[in-house]
Amino acid sequence: TFQKWLFAGILIVAIFFRLFQIVNLPGGLFPDEAANGLDINLMQQGHLQPFYERGNGREALFFYMLWGSVEVFGKGPWQHHIVSSLVGIISVLICFLLTKKLWELFAVDEGKKKQAINIALLASFLMAVSSWHIVLSRTAFRANLIPLFTGLSVYAMLCVYSSKTLAKKMVWSMIFGTAFALGFYTYIAYRILVPILVVAVLWPILVDLFAKPRGQNMRAFILPLAITIISFSIFIFPIAKYFYSHPGSFVGRSGQVSVFNPELNHGNLIGTIG
After folding, report:
1. Among 14, 148, 171, 174, whose Cα sits 20 to 30 Å from the Cα of 181?
2. What is the three-class DSSP state of 59?
3. What is the spatial distance between Cα 196 and Cα 243, in angstroms, rounded to a whole number?
4. b/e burial code for range 134-146 (CB count within 10 A of at least 16 → b)
5. For residue 213, pLDDT beyond 70
6. Is the overall model pTM greater than 0.85, yes or no?
7. Predicted confidence band at 271 (pLDDT cuts at 50, 70, 90)?
8. What is d(CA 239, CA 165) in angstroms, rounded to the nearest whole number?
9. For 21-49, how does the pLDDT look when each residue is reduced to its tens digit (9 = 90+)?
């Protein structure tokens, strides 16, 4: 009971820091936030895309969320900021669930496993009062979606592994594939999650190659893996199709800041890296 009250208190703290004076603070829109509004204007005119080229190209999921707020509350700075605040609050909740699940799965004994809730409470509290996440949650930058979708994707993946029944594995596989795909509509830095999650997803099968008897892990995960791939493919299709038609947009922003960009390294790659 005490832990439940403590968790409620942490959520209240998260809500307070992200919503207090949100109508007045910050008092306006940064240039990137104002650019979001310009793309929302395009949406209202019927130009619906998974990716918008303004400002070196930007993934559109956050803009659709902002569009909903603008339609309900009208145009203005706080209508953008409140969406990011709500995303930040949900991210704190996801942080609690993910930390608890991780600790339960990797605890070496039952004594350590019982500490899962306490560790999760600590992690969610630190996120709730973290200055970087508070600032990110009070400003309308689409990068604020990365903690949410990263946490949700990893949590859903762990639920696939830990579910005891095939039905639950299938449901969580669908959620995992969907969340993982939607993350690509958030911010370019999310792409770093690809090699990490691919290794994590394939790990049971790789272990199975050296296990005796073989085939146990593969049989348990082949159907969930198939469902994950199907749901991922469905939701990734619109932006994948866009990048197929506009290949320059896929590498445009990252290419500009890459150490391999000749305009940056001026022929001295080692010096640029150093």
Report:
1. 14
2. strand
3. 22
4. bebbbbbbbbbbb
5. no
6. yes
7. low
8. 33
9. 999 999 899 999 999 999 999 999 999 99
- How far from the centroid of its chain's Cα atoms is residue 227's Cα? 20
d(CA 52, CA 82): 22
The confidence score (pLDDT) of residue 254 equals: 67
* Spatial distance between the Cα atoms of 217 and 207, rounded to a whole number of angstroms: 8
**Distance between CA 222 and CA 254 in Å, rounded?**
34
Token pair of 188 as six digits? 């370019």
pLDDT tens-digit profile of 200-211?
Answer: 888 777 777 776
Reading the block at residue 199, the tokens are 């290794």
Angle between helices 216-245 and 145-162 (to 10 degrees): 150
Contacts of the segment 115-118: beta carbons below 8 A, 24+ positions apart = 117/3, 118/3
One-letter amino acid of 238: P
Residue count of the chain, please give it: 274
